[in-house]
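Pipeline run #58 for the internal structure catalog. This entry was flagged by the ingest filter as a single-chain record with no existing model, so it goes straight to prediction. Upstream metadata was stripped on purpose; only the residue string is passed forward. Reviewer on rotation: M.T. Logging verbosity set to normal.
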Amino acid sequence: MSAFNSLWKAYETRDGDSLSAMVVPDSDVVLYGTGADEKRIGSREIRVQFERDWSQSQSASLKFDWHSVSMAGGAALVAADGAAHVKVGGQEVTMPVRATMAFEQRGAKWLVAQMHVSTPASEQSEGESWAPPSR
């Protein structure tokens, strides 16, 4: 969880260099976000996504209030629920957020090998598996 929390601290402080150092430098590392175009492959593209987030907001932080960690050898899988607090266009917005991340131990460091961060589908009713089709 230390690596997970450090990643979100670097995101909040908009420290792109530290964030980049927390991601495996492999060409097949993947980030999925909520937006239809938020599929980033490679550490450089992941940084592009974070920089886009920052360019479109005055501040952004993610705070998690639940998490689960599974370990297997040199891999750790984290699932977490929380809230994104974002200031966009001078207006502060809070929305639910979910994250799943695969970390890989490389030397003494735990680095992100895959991540998915998104907001739950607001058009999908609780207890329903599918959202109704839009008209």
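catalog note: The domain at 2-118 is CATH 3.10.450.50 (Nuclear Transport Factor 2; Chain: A,).
catalog note: The chain has one domain: 2-118.
status: ready for reviewer M.T.
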